[in-house]
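User: Please predict the structure of the protein below. I'd like the answer in structure-token form so I can feed it into my own downstream comparison script.

Assistant: Understood. Taking the following sequence of 85 residues as input:
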Amino acid sequence: MTPNTIYTNSWCPYCSAAKELLSNNNAPFEEIEISGRTEKRQEMLSRSGGSSTVPQIFIGDRHVGGCDDLYALDRRGELDALLAA
């Protein structure tokens, strides 16, 4: 299984909400805190195609986007299948 990854800032409420949704779906994830970590911020920018806001969420190797994008996948019933792949 390819790991799920979420780039975050500790103070971000959207990051907390995204992590909560993943946890509620029993989806393990690696959290990468980017505050004060230039190399991790650059990694996030590179992987996300330049998206600079947090969270930036990856299900396996697929870039999902931010918190709103993750919740939209869930509302459409697509998140479970993506997590199971």
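That's the full token string. The beta strands are 4-8, 29-33, 56-59, 62-65.
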